[in-house]
Specification:
By secondary structure, this protein is mainly α. 47% of the residues lie in helices and 11% in strands. The chain has 3 domains: 57 residues, no CATH class; 74 residues, DNA polymerase, domain 1 (Orthogonal Bundle); 172 residues, hpI Integrase, Chain A, CATH 1.10.443.10. The strands form 3 sheets. Strands 1-2-3 form a 3-stranded antiparallel sheet, covered by helices on one side. Strands 4-5-8 form a 3-stranded antiparallel sheet. It has a two-stranded antiparallel ribbon with strand order 6-7. Strand 2 and strand 3 form a beta hairpin. Helix 13 crosses helix 14. The longest helix is centred in the N-terminal third of the chain and has 20 residues. The N and C termini lie far apart (104 Å).
Length: 359
């Protein structure tokens, strides 16, 4: 009777253990990614038993070891992923590079070191999202017992550093950009910088969302990934934002459109495609105006920066921008001008108020 193999655990670092063993074909294998020796030993014991069963021809074990390729795993995962179709489409786009690189590979042949090397070849701006999508598929494959351990788990996948905030300096700068845009789009820079709305929010606005008597706009829906979505009733995104007179004047100067209920319709009356707007209108307008490159999202940053400079508090700003106070503080808190001086003046004024005893 052949002697049963035992396998061995190898320590690579303080929280990185691996297992060496021989598979059912007698080939030497290595599986890493274990954070403790105990986890590695438990996996090794199960693997050794599995290899022994495969060598005996155990039908049940053979059935569980159906060879699944990366491409098959991606397709099966997306087929059962019960989310919004737009989210599934986005995930499929993110997985395209992984399928191109490893599509024909069987899952159990993937190794952490080669996944880490592949990750470094991805564009820096989308590297985190692309790798996270593949890790998500492999994690589900492990849950379905197609593989024993997710080989992407030990690969670090830090988020990219957020881009530097580059607000616009003045209304004059926005006016110069507006002058270079088609008249149908000319109000967008001033409206976005004057209201703080996200692009997917102002694209979805309809004229009925404006209350000119009260001077406010209501955000009830967004247009993202080619789909119109209502804001959840409990979401911070559903809100009312006051519009300063300058923004209302910009809207009044817009060419009238009767072919669409949208506030900012595309030339044919539908929703603006943000990518096309960026490359066909926004970037050329900045270039023609002689203004350094800016993201469309920097219009929202401009609203936050100018609001803080005007003395709007962080709490009020978080409500107007539809996000958490913590996010506002982390992103813009350092921009609040003379915060200590203003706070000290408020406290001194409180202490100097008239009291019943002294008057």
């Amino acid at each position: 009777m052949a002697k049963k193999q035992r396998g061995s655990v190898a320590k690579r670092s303080d929280r990185n253990f691996g297992v060496r063993y021989y598979d059912e074909h007698g080939e030497r294998r290595y599986q890493g990614g274990f954070t403790t020796r105990t986890a590695a030993e438990e996996w090794m014991d199960a693997k050794v038993d599995e290899v022994a069963a495969l060598r005996r021809g155990d039908a049940a074990v053979l059935a569980r070891r159906e060879p699944v390729t990366v491409a098959q795993a991606i397709n099966r995962y997306l087929a059962q992923h019960d989310v919004d179709p737009a989210t599934t489409a986005k995930l499929r786009r993110q997985l395209r590079r992984a399928e191109q690189a490893f599509g024909d590979r069987q899952l159990h042949t993937l190794q952490p070191y080669e996944l880490g090397a592949w990750r470094r070849t991805l564009p820096s701006g989308s590297r985190h999202d692309f790798f996270r999508a593949l890790r998500q598929v492999l994690e589900q494959a492990a849950a379905w017992h197609w593989i024993d351990v997710n080989p992407a788990r030990p690969v670090k996948n830090p988020k990219p550093k957020p881009p530097q905030i580059q607000p616009f300096e003045s209304w004059d700068e926005l006016d110069v950009i507006a002058a270079e845009l088609d008249a149908r789009y000319a109000a967008i820079p001033g409206f976005a910088a004057g209201s703080g709305l996200r692009p997917q929010e102002w694209i979805a606005l309809e004229r009925r969302d404006l209350d000119r008597v009260e001077g406010v706009v209501t955000i009830e829906r967004v247009y993202t990934q080619g789909r119109l979505k209502p804001c959840a009733k409990t979401s911070r995104q559903r809100r009312r934002v006051p519009l300063r007179q300058r923004v209302l004047d910009l809207l009044d100067a817009m060419p009238p459109r009767i072919d669409s209920p949208l506030l900012f319709p595309a030339p044919r009356g539908g929703y603006i495609d943000l990518e096309r707007f960026r490359y066909r209108a926004w970037v050329p307008a900045l270039r023609a105006a002689g203004i350094p490159p800016r993201r469309i999202y920097d219009l929202r940053h401009t609203y936050a920066t100018w609001s803080l400079a005007a003395g709007v508090g962080l709490f009020a700003l978080s409500r107007r921008m539809g996000t958490s106070l913590a996010m506002i503080d982390a992103t813009y808190g350092h921009l609040a001008p003379d915060a200590e001086t203003i706070e000290r003046a408020l406290l001194d004024a409180w202490d100097a108020r008239p009291t019943a005893i002294g008057h």
